């Protein structure tokens, strides 16, 4: 039916019902205004949510890069582990998990999944960094003891780094170290596990792979964020 016919029919119906034309026009204007307001509110909501997602993504990326730097510094350090517990085991995960939680709430699902992958990789790096830090610290305790005149430790380290040393001699050296009480049982066992034969160097704990995992997952998250934020509003 033609638009003019519909309008004429509506006008004639309004006339039959005794509805003033001005009132009918007012109804139409109110309906149009309400529709426009709904569209504006929806557009504002979409804009606010998109901005929230962008802000959460930026905060998340910044927190991950900061946490990664802290973990790598921890990995290279032989300072007492206790000095880093709050940083590495509590504060850093909290800094990463806060924007991660926002991303999981705000969505979309693809961003939440990519962000969770990054969080998992970050946890892996932190665990390995802490492990190496404790190994370095335990080794530094033994070195300091030997350098300051502890003959038992000095003799044990000499046995552990002797190219001609036997497995039996190395076992005796570890037992002698344990009897000094300088290291806890856990520290001693972990250090023994990672101590290279005939060398003071420590076996790697997979830090390179863990660091690469963060880079790869973070790149995937950034790409997903760009794709989402570049999409036109629905």
List the helices and strands and how they pair.
Blueprint: H1 3-17, H2 21-76, H3 82-106, H4 109-147, H5 151-160, H6 167-180, H7 185-194, H8 207-230
Short note summarizing the structure:
The chain has 234 residues and is an all-alpha fold.
Largest sheet: none
Overall shape: it is: rod-shaped
Unreliable stretches? none
- Approximately how much helix is present in the residues? over 70%
What is the typical, i.e. mean, pLDDT?
A: 79
Q: What's the Cα radius of gyration?
A: 33 Å
Tell me what portion of residues adopts beta-strand conformation: under 5%
Q: How many beta-strand runs?
A: 0
Order of helices and strands: HHHHHHHH
CA-to-CA gap between the ends?
31 Å
SS content category: mainly alpha
Count every helix, treating DSSP H or I runs of 4 or more residues as helices.
8
Q: Can you characterise this structure?
A:
The chain has 234 residues and is mainly α. 82% of the residues lie in helices and 0% in strands. The protein has helices at 3-17, 21-76, 82-106, 109-147, 151-160, 167-180, 185-194, 207-230. The chain is rod-shaped and about 110 Å long.
Which descriptors would you attach to this protein?
82% helix, mainly alpha, 234 residues
């Amino acid at each position: 039916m033609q638009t003019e016919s519909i309008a004429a029919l509506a006008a004639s119906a309004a006339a039959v019902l005794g509805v003033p034309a001005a009132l009918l026009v007012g109804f139409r204007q109110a309906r149009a205004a309400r529709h426009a307001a709904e569209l504006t509110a929806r557009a504002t909501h979409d804009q606010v949510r998109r901005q929230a997602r962008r802000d959460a993504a930026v905060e998340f990326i910044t927190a991950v890069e900061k946490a990664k730097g802290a973990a790598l510094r921890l990995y290279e350090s032989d300072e007492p582990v206790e000095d880093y517990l709050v940083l590495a085991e509590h504060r850093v995960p909290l800094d990463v998990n806060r924007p991660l939680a926002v991303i999981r709430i705000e969505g979309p699902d693809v961003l939440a999944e990519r962000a969770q992958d990054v969080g998992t990789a970050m946890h892996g790096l932190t665990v390995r960094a802490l492990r190496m830090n404790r190994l370095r610290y335990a080794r530094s305790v033994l070195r300091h003891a030997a350098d300051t005149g502890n003959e038992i430790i000095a003799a044990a380290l000499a046995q552990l780094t002797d190219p001609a040393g036997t497995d039996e001699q190395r076992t005796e050296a570890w037992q002698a170290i344990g009897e000094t009480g300088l290291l806890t049982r856990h520290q001693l066992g972990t250090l023994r596990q990672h101590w290279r034969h005939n060398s003071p160097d420590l076996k790697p704990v997979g830090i390179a792979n863990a660091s690469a995992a963060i880079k790869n997952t973070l790149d995937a998250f950034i790409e997903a964020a760009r794709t989402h934020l570049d999409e036109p509003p629905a």
